[in-house]
Each structure stands twice: as C-alpha cells, then as structure tokens.
Amino acid sequence: MQKVDFLVIGSGIAGLSFALKAAAKGKVLILTKVNADETNTKYAQGGIAAVFDPETDSFEKHISDTLIAGDGLCDRKIVEIVVTEGPDRIQELIDYGTNFDKHGSEYDLTREGGHSEKRILHYKDITGKEIERALLEQVSKNPNIEILTHYYAVEIITQHHLGIEVTRETSDITCFGVYALNVHTNQVETILSKVTLMATGGAGNIYSATTNPVIATGDGIAMIYRAKGRVRDMEMIQFHPTSLYNPGEYPSFLITEAVRGEGGVLKNKKGEEFMQSYDPRGSLAPRDIVARSIDAEMKKSGEDHVYLDISFKPKELILQHFPNIYEKCLSIGLDISKDMIPVVPAAHYLCGGILVDEYGHSTIHRLFACGECSSTGLHGANRLASNSLLEAAVFGHRIAHQAMEDVDKISFQENVPDWNEFGTEQSNEEILVTHNLREVQRMMSDYVGIVRSDFRLERALRRLKLVKDETEEFYKKTKLSVKLCELRNLVQCAELVIRCAMKRKESRGLHYTTDYPYKLGGKPENSVL
Ligand code: FAD
Ligand code: SIN
Hints:
single chain; alpha/beta; FAD/NAD(P)-binding domain; Flavocytochrome C3, Chain A, domain 1; Methane Monooxygenase Hydroxylase, Chain G, domain 1; 3 domains; 35% helix; binds flavin-adenine dinucleotide; binds succinic acid
C-alpha cells in the first residue's frame, strides 16, 4: 500500500499542469496506463487558443466566439475565467520551455473554425507533442513528482469499499485513493491519497472512427459514475470534420483545422466548393456545422469522403506549417501541394464529462477532475477549436491552488481493504473482449453519430444492454486485464452518451436529431446523470 498527498491519474496536459504546481506543497504520484507521453495531448495538432495580439483581438471577442460555438449551453462565468486566465497559463508553458512558432519576435498566430481572429499559438502541426515534451521534462526535474507508467487505475476507493452503502443521493461520498493494476506484476495495488485528480482524457474509442489514440477509453468518467458521482452533457460528442480518409487505419489521422485556417477549402469530387451553401462562414464555420454539412454532402453524393484542398497555396507555406501532415500524406501516395486530401469526419472530442465546479471539484469529496474527462461548462454544446488545451492548463492551475489549501486538513483513511479478487479465474477468452468492443464501436457509429433519432438511440441502448450484461458477467468471473476494464468503461460511457442524448428533446450544437430538428426556447438545460 502506498500513501501520497496528491494522486494524479493521467499524464496529459491536465495531469502534468496540476502536478507541477501541487508539488510545491507535497508529494505527487502520477499513474499512467502506458508510456507517460501516450496521451491525446501528444496528438494535438492545431494549437492552443488565447488572446495574444491586443491590437486586433480582445477577451470579449474570444468569449463571444466560445459562446457562439457552444450554442447557448456554455457557462458564461467559466468562459470568462478560461479566456482571461489563458494568456498567463500559456506564458507558463513558454516558461517551462514550450516552443511556439514565431514570425520574427511575434508569435505566428493562426486561425481555426469559429474564431473571429487569428489567436492560435502553434508549433508547426505538432503543438501537442511539443507541449507534452516540455511538461514531461519539467516533471522529470522535480523531486516531488513520481510517475508510475503502466499502472492502470481500476476503481476509485470510497465508503462503498468500507461496506457502507453509497447511492447517487449520498451527499458525502469521499474518495480515499484508487485501486490500480500494476501491469508489470499483474497485481492490483491500493494507493491512498489525501487528494485525487482525475485527468484521464476523453472517450473517442466508443466509435469505430476516431482521431483519439487507443488510450482514450473514458476510464475516469466511468469510474466516477460507478462510484455514484455525477456526469454532464455526455451527448455532446464532437466529430472533427477532417480526418484523413484512409480505410483500415485506426485511429484516424487528423488533418488539422489550421489547414482551413490557412486558406484550405472543402470540395466535392468534382472539385466544387460546397460549404457556402450550408453556412456563410464556409469551410471555417464551427465544427458541428462543418461536420454535419460534410455528412449531408456525402449522403447526397453517395461518396464515402469529401476533399480538403490546400494545393493552391505555396509549397513553402505547406512545408513550413504542416510538415507532419505533408509527410503522412506522402507516405500514402498523396502530395498535398498538388493533390486534394480525401477527408471524412471522425469522433474527436467529448465536450461533456465529470461534472465539476469552477475549482474543479467533482461531486465526490477529495476528488477533482481536469481536462477532457471533466465538464466545466466551457464548451457547452460544441467546443471552439483549440480551447481544450487551454481549459486543461487553466483548470490545472486553479485546481492545484485549491488542492494545496485543502490538503493540510485531510488525513489518510484507515482500514481500507485490499482489492478482492476472490472467485476470479484467468480468462482464455480474451477474443470476446475484442468482439464486444467492435460491436459497441460499430453500433455507436451507426446509431449515435452525427445525425440521431429516437428510434436509433433506442435501438442502440437495447443492443448495448446485452453487451453490458455480458461484460459485467465476464468482469466478475475473470482476473483483471486492462482490455477488459477498458471495454467495461467504454460500454459505460457509451450508455451515458445515449442516455444523455435521449434526455435532449431538441437539436443543439453537436446533438442533432431528426425527431426534434429545432432548438427549444428559453434557457437550455444541461443533461445531468
Ligand atoms: P490526455 O492528454 O488524453 O491524457 C490522459 C491520460 O490519462 C493519459 O496519460 C492516459 O494514459 C491516462 N489514463 C487514462 N485512463 C487511465 C487509467 N485508467 N489509469 C491510468 N492512466 C489512465 N485540443 C486543442 O486545444 N488544440 C488542438 O490542436 C487539438 N488537437 C487535437 C488533435 C487530436 C488528434 C486529438 C485526438 C485531440 C486534439 N485536441 C486538441 C484535444 C486535446 O488534445 C485533448 O482534449 C487534451 O489533450 C486532453 O488532455 P488531458 O490531459 O485531459 O487528457
Ligand atoms: C485541429 O488541429 O484541428 C484540432 C484542434 C482542436 O481539436 O482543438
């Protein structure tokens, strides 16, 4: 059994930003399920949004763009906090050693869909990799932070594990730490903490086409929901309009929105631009609109992709700003300085998640959530591009300060039992896990994608129940494996997405249903479970 002041689950921008601050006050232990840098953060391409050019831009404009993209569901107070605190947090990333591209002494700010000004700081088209590198380098120098890689958090520990009944109505559910599977030894270890931060990222892998790496399996959200914490707005799944159409490749390779920010346009097979007939903002309309328009265009033409064209821009610009995309496309025989890029929407970002307040408190005591797994209220019904890395940096800072205040008042819980694996056996049917996973992904893509309906959602929920029952049965009988736990969490998240979608009897932001193709009047409600 280990005891730590601050326990962090996840080593993306959210977990690392928090850890670097909290380490000033106590010992921080970070658990991460594979290598430390294997995170959604590492794959971020476009950049991080903030007001960096006061000559042309302002907090008001960034706030307004975020609210417009969020389609009425953002929490205005949270939007103001993130936008106004953003530049200081980005300056910290720079001070930690993150490089962002410059023109002379000025940052090279670019634009993405839904932004009225150029305000995206980037490092070529591999911004996330650069941020992750700089943060991990700082963490490695900090004697108060330890990272345990290949440690998989299975469940958070609460009163439930002390034999006390906990329901969703219990007001003082408290997190005492986690049970984690040490993948090297295959043993489940008990780790007690004074404060725990859930920073486990998104859940893109509930779909069969996603830009997310395979680690994005919604573990933190599922753990917290099982522990009777609250989640919100899970129906708001953002499909990125332009992932590379390359059948057989999983996950899908992203073609950053910055390509459109630099002038790239969406075209059909005949080479005709089509976005203007859907939205006056054209290829740079907010993501929900662009993804839906591409979906409609594909249905109209019967094609399984559309095209993104940047070939008319100077080759030097393409090579300088998008070297990673250029190389990737070249590897499959496409020269993007000459050829159009075949693209298709793919599940990209979860706007909802673990319900938290303005300091990142979840509805469970001593448990915070940060980054993509959390629902702060910033994104509403549709996240504005490049606001995600920003949110994680801002909330990582706010939560660290709150947690540092709290930690002295907290002592470790006594008498926490070890993980009980009584009655479980080694499985020789791991293939069933793979089959069930594919079934869930297929079904979510077919019935709970960009365009939904009551009939499709009901059908999906019925089928999911069967997979859920089978998975729970398997989980009770077999020794833990990461794949089985991930499947269980993906099934849980898929169910939450469907149930939140069923609650929303309107079309708003990323949730579009043919049964209610309009917005309800009045103040829109969040879907809370
Ligand atoms: P992550 O970076 O995903 O980190 C999650 C961590 O949790 C990982 O270390 C993982 O191993 C660990 N973990 C998960 N479950 C467990 C468990 N059970 N036990 C132990 N560890 C666990 N956003 C922008 O703002 N700008 C962009 O340009 C941008 N581009 C993107 C491009 C791509 C291809 C993708 C996929 C996303 C992009 N996003 C972008 C979104 C953004 O990258 C993510 O939302 C953000 O990085 C999430 O950070 P995070 O720290 O919350 O989670
Ligand atoms: C992109 O580069 O297009 C992704 C940006 C984001 O998801 O915020």
